[in-house]
From TrEMBL:
Taxonomic lineage from the root: Bacteria, Bacillati, Bacillota, Bacilli, Lactobacillales
Gene3D superfamilies noted in UniProt: 3.40.50.360
Protein name in the entry: Ribonucleotide reductase assembly protein NrdI
InterPro entries: Flavoprotein-like_sf, RNR_NrdI
SUPFAM superfamilies named in the record: Flavoproteins
Gene Ontology molecular function, alphabetical: FMN binding
Amino acid sequence: MQPLNVLYISIEGNTRNFVKNLTRYAAEQHAQNPDLPELNAKEVSEQTDFDDLDKDYFCFVPTYLDGGDGVNSGVKELMTNVCGEYIAYHQNASHLIGVVGSGNRNFNLQYCLTARRYAYMFKAPFIADYELRGVPADEVRIYDALVKRAEEVASAE
């Protein structure tokens, strides 16, 4: 299986930490079973030059919002806009095969709202979520979800 490609943005370091741990976990799985994919991750920031993405990828995005509940009183996304702009660049959205969200469950309806909005906007499934920096069980669960989704996409081609 080809490596799993991940595009992510990290504001406070939580997503970066999680993706780093997930990358390590994927490498361990690949070492034990070469049929399981490794993970290639690319972090996006305000300084990132946009490239054309020509391979399937997953997006990992945290939620940072300014007011509103995203349902009844609107929403204004903060700090992660460049990730959405990168996905929207040229044909990049056509290669997005899944979105993973993170956030703080204390924010109720806003929990993972940015990821759910990206999934809707870019017509890609919302496949998993984790809170803050995640825990080791999240690495296992999310890796399995990425592998499953990549297999679904490969079998549909």
